[in-house]
Amino acid sequence: MAKMLEPYQTVIVESYIPSKTTGLHGIVHIRPVNGQGFPENLHVQCSKTLSRDYPVGTKFKINAKLTDRKDGGEFLYSSYRWKFEVLEKLANHMPALTLHSTRTG
Q1: Residue 21 in contact with residue 27, Cβ under 8 Å?
Q2: In a structure prediction context, what are the per-residue pLDDT tens digits for the chain, which is 105 residues long?
Q3: Nearest Cα to Cα of residue 18 among 33, 36, 40
Q4: Which of 8, 40, 42, 93 has its CA 20 to 30 A from that of 17?
Q5: Could you give the CA distance from residue 36 to residue 52 in angstroms, rounded to a whole number?
Q6: What are phi and psi of 48, to 5 degrees?
Q7: Residue 59 half-sphere exposure toward CB, CA atoms < 13 A
Q8: Are 84 and 62 in contact (CB under 8 A)?
Q9: CA 86, CA 63: separation in Å to the nearest integer?
Q10: Count of CB atoms within 10 A of residue 66's CB?
């Protein structure tokens, strides 16, 4: 059940590639940066632009709230429509990955 009374707050997040992707969709994911009261392994649901269009390791400032699923499991939620701020774009990190089909005739 969603946490209806949980407030939205400013959270600094970063893109990363998890070592284990079992049950996850996609290669690049978003997590909160350490030191904000959220565990680093907490998933963040937000605009795919953050994981798709910026290099892995880029840091962002988003508005998010802690919520959970009906079957349990907390995560941070930020609407994909909301604006975000790019704080640190790491040029020396791996760029966001885009998979292309290499289907042949």
Answers
A1: yes
A2: 466 678 899 999 999 998 876 666 778 999 999 999 999 989 999 999 999 999 999 999 999 999 987 777 899 999 999 999 999 776 655 544 444 334 444
A3: 40
A4: 8
A5: 24
A6: -65, -15
A7: 8
A8: yes
A9: 13
A10: 17
Q: How far apart (Å, rounded) are the C-alpha atoms in residues 47 and 58?
A: 14
Residue 11 backbone phi and psi in degrees, to 5: -130, 135
Q: List the structure tokens of 101.
A: 């089909």
Handedness of CA 19, 20, 25, 31 (dihedral sign): negative
- What global pTM score does this model have? 0.77
CB distance 14 to 87 below 8 Å: no
Tokens 């269009």 correspond to what residue? 53
Other beta carbons within 10 angstroms of residue 94's beta carbon come to 12
* Cβ contact 93:55 at 8 Å: yes
Tokens of 81: 């429509």
Residue 81 in contact with residue 16, Cβ under 8 Å? no
